[in-house]
Design brief:
Blueprint: H1 6-45, H2 57-70, E1 87-93, H3 104-120, E2 125-128, H4 146-159, E3 170-173, H5 192-195, E4 203-209, E5 212-218, E6 235-237, H6 239-251, E7 257-261, E8 269-271, H7 280-283, E9 289-292, E10 307-309, E11 315-318, E12 327-334, E13 337-344, E14 364-365, E15 382-383, E16 397-402, H8 418-421, E17 424-430, E18 449-454, E19 457-458, E20 464-465, E21 482-486, E22 498-505, E23 511-518, H9 531-537, H10 540-571, H11 602-619, H12 626-650, H13 653-668, E24 672-675, E25 685-688, E26 693-695, E27 710-712, H14 724-733, H15 745-748, E28 753-756, H16 759-784, H17 806-830, H18 833-837, H19 839-855, H20 860-912, H21 924-934, H22 940-946, H23 959-977
Parallel strand pairs: 1-2, 2-3, 5-7, 6-8, 7-9, 9-11
Antiparallel strand pairs: 1-12, 4-5, 10-11, 12-13, 14-15, 16-17, 17-21, 18-19, 18-22, 20-21, 22-23, 24-25, 25-26, 26-28, 27-28
Length: 988
């Protein structure tokens, strides 16, 4: 075939590129505009998080100087000895979850008040959130229950903690359960403001002693407003909150230590910036310890040690929950070295039902009311609050304060050099004076028994009590169970880790032990926290955004956009010039091998070439060696097959554009409309976006108490302005320097809405992408590609691919039903509008229809290919049958001819060797020539026939050729004699 001239080819190439560009422009415009608008929405949602001003260089230098001054010097003259001064301790407890429907958590809290607090007797207690459970009986819905808050308040009043130390003993914070369905701080749903001990959003107080000043700051990171569950797991700390924390930290400058308390760990909190642009990482350089709760030790033992030393040199400690595990923490500050231990209450001895199951079951007390009326009459009896319960026996509790555990050293804030110069080992021991059952009284000792071991060797110096016993405490001296033991610290100053074990046996024989890993050189040891340490170190809230962005771009780019661009390029490209067909590309052996077929465009040629390549791979899967079978089957064939699948999927307009539009809608339009804060009425209704929850009727805040809420001045009309999509995105990217129309004064005066930027929406959308986009997209891609494109006629998967098996179909139907149930569950929580307004609902309807039409019934193309391949196979089979029949007939005719010729030759030989009279004039030469062929034996040709095709030497001889050779030889012999052929006698 002659090739096209160069000018003509250049013109055609230019036209193809022009067609490709024209096809690319609208598609890329759609995708890029959607992504820019998604970025614009994220800017709107987080404008209250990053409402920062540029900080001057002078301010930055001043803050850095203050931070350097605030750092504790590692060199001083203080020696840790045997004195009882320069030490205090407090208690942290978290996640009480007092519930109306589940009494176990309430019983645990009552036991803490009646047993743990009297035993430990700390300086104060901090409760880091989740005071109540706020879940319904089915653990599905959420609301603030008055009974739960009354139970909490009454327990505090009955235990006396509210009046202890002039009302400075008990400090509590809100958790996410305490702000479920709470519109604003002034709402009646915010029962924390009336029934808690603190009654304010956060707290701040100082502990001033002769040896220093210590600051304690509690922050409230609850979303404002607080949506009902489940979209209320991550904390939110916006610019006004950051400014408040910055002011409090400024007031804490010069403290020996500053402790920050929050319900949410740093890893589950979205922190914004201050008005001056300072981040949480900048502020965290000013405090020593961040204490929190919320994670409940995770599951399966993964969160037993949720602790981490953060890069900005503060220690983050999460305490286990009181709800199920009955855990509280004792923090000891000894000579500015911070130590702690987590104590688990004796869960097996806690009575299962301290709190009455019903208010009528509460016991009563007799007495008189304020008017003098007697309550002896049962009808006039006064109900009393349920008792906290009796004090339960407890095992000894041990906290080693020197040497401090080197895994939790804070070199930037602690004087770690004091360990090397210390003269005594110091530890606190709390032992219970409550007697066990009578059978153990005979083993009662006069005092406790203490045993110390360092690196497994007994520490010979005795342990001495130098604290203040409980019966000796007074207004000047608090209870302090401090023990010391003299030691030589330099003996262990070898740059290695050592282990200190303290074993205590109380008066009643109850045993406890504590192990401390320490270093004298002041270097930190590895926590070896594994997954728990990684969870606290990583910022899950930011990681969710990064994970979604990476996964979403991969799915849309690699699986949708790039295959579409490639298919558009192929479809607008000219087909290749016809060339001589190579034999290796011929699928049908009976096909012509002259010229290649004529294609309409480059895509058809590419598809034909890819199919032929896959045919060769699939037809050789069972013939290749076992060492190469894995590569051919699971790698080579799979990669080429998936490339063909996704490119072919992009050429199916209905399937591709429905999937692409859903993928773009996930980041640009509301997922559904729901009532996220039912207690707020119409103001609590809004849109669920990827970037957060948008409440269009909230007016910037609900009821006036949400100063930190993000305000979208564009109002609800923002969604319906198609021309402002690109302009708003450009304005967000350029800071308003270009296309600032969205921030004009007219729109600023419009009705504003409230954004709640939450990591919960990102996490929810990740699952939507995984289930609704990736899984269904992959399955539809498999079903949309005819198996005849991928497998040769000899491959069994051609007629029954994996995705058409019954178990795969059942799996996909199960996933589809699971997602439908998820939509219904969300509708139960946020209203029926979730169903009809949700893009996920309509996508599930579309996917269900597509799975039935494409996945569970063969497509027309696939039927045509299967039919065509079937006709080819039938034609090939019929041809083979005809060839077999013709061969059989030929074989029968050949056998008959051979039999007849055999009879003729045998008869001729018999006549020549048995009495045929020859002429006497034959000379000796002619007689020898005649006798050589028939002298008492058959000729070679006859022998070949008689031997079934073999001569005397055993070589294979064609019988037909042997007959022809024999006849020719006989004719030559007769012509040589110059006479006629001899006449044989008739043989009967």
């Amino acid at each position: 075939m002659s090739r096209r001239p160069a000018p003509e080819l250049a013109v055609q190439t230019t036209r193809s590129w022009l067609k490709t560009a024209i096809a690319f422009v609208p598609f890329l415009t759609l995708v890029i505009s959607a992504w820019l608008y998604a970025l614009h929405l994220d800017t709107l949602a987080n404008q209250s998080m990053y409402n920062a001003k540029v900080q001057s260089r002078q301010q930055q230098e001043q803050e850095q100087k203050q931070q350097q001054e605030n750092q504790t010097s590692s060199q001083d003259n203080v020696v840790i000895g045997d004195s009882k001064d320069n030490i205090f301790y407090f208690v942290q407890v978290s996640d009480l979850h007092i519930s109306t429907f589940r009494k176990a958590s309430t019983a645990n809290f009552y036991t803490f008040l009646s047993t743990a607090l009297p035993l430990v007797d700390p300086a104060f207690v901090v409760v880091t959130g989740d005071l109540t459970d706020a879940k319904d009986q089915q653990l599905v819905g959420s609301m603030q229950y008055v009974d739960e808050w009354v139970t909490y308040k009454n327990a505090l009043e009955e235990s006396g903690v509210l009046k202890k130390r002039n009302g400075t003993f008990w400090h509590d914070l809100r958790g996410n359960h305490d702000c479920f369905n709470v519109p604003d701080w002034d709402s009646k749903e915010n029962m924390y403001a009336d029934m808690s001990a603190t009654k304010t959003p956060g707290f701040m107080f100082d502990v001033k002693t002769e040896y220093g000043k210590y600051g304690f700051i509690g922050i409230d990171a609850c979303p404002k407003p607080g949506p009902a569950r489940p979209y209320n797991f991550f904390g939110l700390f916006e610019t006004p909150d950051m400014d408040s924390l910055a002011r409090r930290l400024t007031l804490s400058q010069g403290n020996n230590h500053t402790f920050v308390f929050s319900h949410y760990p740093v890893t589950t909190t979205m922190f914004g910036q201050t008005s001056t642009g300072a981040s949480f990482a900048d502020l965290s350089k000013s405090f020593s310890v961040y204490m929190c709760g919320h994670l409940h030790k995770l599951k399966w033992g993964l969160g037993d040690a949720l602790q981490a030393y953060q890069p900005t040199h503060f220690l983050e400690l999460e305490v286990g929950d009181m709800k199920q595990n009955g855990i509280y923490r004792i923090m000891v500050v000894d000579h500015d070295m911070i130590s702690f231990t987590d104590v688990s209450m004796p869960m097996t001895t806690i009575p299962p039902a301290i709190m009455p199951a019903h208010p009528d079951d509460a016991f009563v007390e007799e007495g008189d009311d304020d008017k003098g009326n007697s309550f002896s009459d049962p009808k006039l009896q006064k109900k009393k609050r349920p008792a906290l319960g009796r004090r339960l026996p407890t095992n000894p509790i041990i906290v080693v304060s020197n040497p401090k555990d080197s895994r939790y050293l804070i070199p930037k804030h602690e004087p770690v050099n004091r360990i090397a110069t210390s003269t005594h080992i110091r530890f606190l021991v709390w032992t219970d004076s409550q007697a066990p059952p009578p059978e153990y009284h005979e083993h009662m000792r006069k005092d406790i028994k203490i045993e110390l071991r360092i690196d497994g060797q007994p520490h010979l110096n005795p342990s001495t009590f130098v604290g203040v016993r409980e019966h000796d405490k007074n207004e000047e001296e608090e209870f302090l169970p401090l023990y010391v033991s003299e030691w030589d610290a330099q003996k262990y100053n070898d740059g290695k880790e050592h282990e200190l074990e303290v074993k205590v046996v109380d008066r009643y024989g109850r045993v406890s032990s504590s192990t401390t890993v320490f270093r004298v050189d002041g270097q930190r040891s590895d926590m070896k926290g594994g997954f728990a340490e990684w969870v606290m170190w990583a910022n899950v809230a930011l990681m969710l955004k990064a994970l979604f962005t990476t996964g979403y771009l991969f799915v849309t780019l690699v699986l949708l956009i790039l295959p579409k661009l490639y298919s558009l390029y192929l479809q607008t490209s000219p087909p290749p010039s016809p060339t001589t067909k190579s034999s290796e590309y011929i699928l049908d052996p009976s096909a012509s091998s002259t010229d290649s077929p004529v294609f309409k465009n480059g895509y058809e040629a590419w598809l034909d070439q890819k199919c032929r390549h896959l045919y060769r791979l699939s037809s050789t899967l069972s013939t290749v060696p076992s060492r190469n079978r894995f590569w051919n089957r699971f790698v080579n064939h799979t990669i080429h097959a998936h490339v063909l699948r996704f490119v072919h999927f992009s050429t199916q307009p209905v399937l591709f554009y429905l999937t692409l539009i859903f993928a773009l809608m996930l980041v640009t339009v509301p997922h559904f409309w729901g009532n996220f804060v039912p207690a707020a009425g119409d103001q609590g209704q809004g849109y669920f976006y990827l970037q957060g929850i948008y409440l269009p009727h909230a007016g910037g805040h609900l009821g006036g108490g949400l100063g930190a809420a993000s305000v979208d001045h564009a109002g609800p009309d923002r969604v319906g302005k198609p021309l402002s999509v690109i302009s708003g995105a450009i304005a967000s990217l350029t800071g308003g320097r270009i296309a600032p129309s969205l921030s004009s004064s007219q729109e600023a005066a419009a009705i504003a809405g409230t954004w709640i930027p939450m990591a919960d929406t990102w996490m929810s959308t990740i699952w939507t992408v995984v289930y609704d986009l990736v899984i269904f997209l992959y399955y539809l891609t498999l079903c949309a590609t005819p198996s005849g494109y991928l497998y040769s006629p000899t491959n069994p998967h051609r007629l029954r691919p994996y995705h058409r098996t019954w178990y795969v179909r059942c799996l996909m139907f199960g996933i589809w039903m699971f997602r439908c149930c998820s939509v219904l569950m969300t509708a139960e929580l946020y209203g029926p509008s979730v169903v009809w307004s949700g893009i996920g609902t309509w996508w599930l309807v579309v996917v269900g229809w597509l799975m039935f039409m494409v996945g569970w019934s063969r497509s027309r193309n696939e039927k045509d290919i299967i039919s065509l391949r079937g006709e080819e196979e039938a034609s090939e089979e019929q041809t083979m049958m005809m060839d077999n029949e013709a061969g059989t007939r030929r074989q029968v005719l050949t056998t008959t001819y051979q039999h007849q010729e055999k009879i003729r030759l045998v008869s001729s030989d018999w006549v020549n060797t048995n009495g045929v009279e020859e002429e006497e004039e034959d000379d000796d030469e002619s007689d020898e020539e005649h006798d050589s062929g028939v002298n008492g034996t058959y000729s070679d040709e006859t022998k070949a026939l008689l031997n079934g095709g073999s001569n005397d030497a055993g070589d294979s001889v064609d019988p037909v050729q042997a007959l022809e050779a024999g006849a020719n030889k006989k004719r030559r012999h007769q012509r040589g004699r110059g006479g006629k052929p001899a006449q044989s006698k008739p043989h009967v």
